[in-house]
Amino acid sequence: MSASISIHPEFAIGSIDRRLFGSFIEHLGRAVYGGIYEPGHPTADADGFRGDVLALVRELGVPLVRYPGGNFLSGYDWEDGVGPRDQRPRRLDLAWGVTETNQVGTNEFAAWARKAETEVMMAVNLGTRGPDAARALVEYCNHPSGSKWSDLRIAHGVKEPHRFKTWCLGNEMDGNWQIGHKDAHHYGRIARETAKVMRWTDPTIELAVCGSSSRGMGGFGEWERCVLEHAYAHVDYVSLHVYYGLNGITLAKFLAKSLDMDAMIREIVATCDHVKAVQRQRKTLYLSFDEWNVWYHSHAEDKEHKRWQVAPKHIEDTYHLADALLVGCMIITLLKHADRVKIACLAQLVNVIAPIMTENGGRCWRQTIHYPFLHAIRFARGVALDARIASSGYDDNELGRVPYLEAVATWDAATGAITLFAVNRHEHEALPLAADLRHFPEHRVVEHLVLEHADAYATNTADRPDTVAPHARGDALLQSGRLEASLAKLSWNVIRLGLVR
Fold it and tell me: Side by side, which strands form the sheet with 3-6?
């Protein structure tokens, strides 16, 4: 059993947009209340934001956070979340069956984002609302002053506009679970008209139109084609969503699910390019994979959820090593499509299927999936390179041939830094890796980080937060243009190369 790859500077896939490593915070469970916001917590600042969570978010360096939903978005009146807090209404959130207090809204989240050193990917409600509410929100957020909605923002104590650049046109509108669910033609028309008035209000913004909620939707592909026939000329991105779980399948099949994600991307790219050709469009449409993750642990306990609580525990998956490995494979897949996938949001950031977990009034810690995400944000710079891979593998009746090695390389020409991200899917054996690096003759190994554990189902908890954590004891060695390494069984690997000084 072995694997080999060849890395060449001319094998460039595309430049890596920093927004590829975005995340997501929805008004759902304890993502906001008890997650980023908890007045009275020992680390809370004057605005009620948890300082310990802010520190972990800054450690990650997330460049973009999508807000405020999610399913929550399709019944949300943004006006409820601005102005004096003591005058904001409590609403029944029909999406999740809880009570929304509206103590955190647009301005508070923008303030949190500045403290977290990240940008906001804002979303408009196209479930119960439409173009009028959307253009008003753009005016409220982005127009400097001298108009009804911008002056209202100033009256609310926010003089400078937020200048949100990237906006979502609704959420999962093809899903019958969505408030205001629409068919493709209806949604395509309202998305087009909403995009027009939003961009007339602020011509600098970028817009993402809703694609299918998953590849398993009956209208997958056809939904995108129909929506884009209406809206292609008015948007910049089409969104994709996907979640994978281990329930009822083998570990081998679970770790192969990133191949399904790869197929999903290729199919939507083909659909976008079909509409481009039919309409004789000049611009190329890009993809926003603005929800993706592993999600399955909490399904049973969520069925016991009592309605109309405020910020109950909801969708709080505890992740193990195997989950982190699939997250790593999915990150690699996104990088392999860096030419067309420019935005992606790990869903979500805190407590709700998240890399960061908290206790109300207590501790916070990093889940296993935190680490592949952290490494990608820190080290995936410049361009993604197509690492030509030959690897032993196994057969899957749904996905075909699955290589034990999942890998991609990135190269930052400005600094010379090369990073190889690699997962060994084999459950029992280390994978010998040989990499041809003769076209990078002046490089050396800086470090070889490894995330592994003897138990594929080991987890991190508040009491044992470092059970699964990366170490730098990997054995990668580069000599005469040939890199050799042993990738431990069921491991995530980051091999960093730098110029010899």
Answer: 388-391, 3-6, 431-436, 482-487, 477-479
One domain for residues 173 and 295: yes
> Are both 246 and 331 inside the same structural domain?
yes
pLDDT digits 0-9 by tens, 59-79:
999 999 999 999 999 999 999
Q: How many CB atoms lie within 10 A of CB 177?
A: 10
Task: Tell me how far apart the alpha carbons of residues 132 and 190 are, in angstroms, rounded to a whole number.
Answer: 11
Indicate which residue of 172, 206, 316, 452 is catalytic.
172
> 146 with 27, same domain?
yes
Domain boundary among 364, 379, 394: 379
DSSP 169-229: E-S-TT-TTSTT---HHHHHHHHHHHHHHHHHH-TT-EEEE---S-TTSTTTTHHHHHHHH
Same domain, 446 and 353: no
Domain match, 328 and 427 both: no
Q: Which of 362, 379, 396 is the last residue of a domain?
A: 379
Q: Does the annotation count 79 as an active-site position?
A: no
Does the pTM surpass 0.70? The reply is: yes
Pair (369, 420) in one structural domain: no
- Domain containing 429 equals 3-8+385-499
Is 359 among the catalytic positions? no
Q: State the catalytic residue, choosing from 119, 206, 224, 291.
A: 291
Model pLDDT for residues 378-402, shown as the tens digit of each residue: 999 999 999 899 999 999 999 999 9
| Tally of structural domains, the chain | 2
456-477 tens-digit pLDDT: 999 999 999 999 999 999 999 9
DSSP letter (8 states) at residue 50: B
pLDDT in tens, 257-312: 999 999 999 999 999 999 999 999 999 999 999 999 999 887 777 777 889 999 99
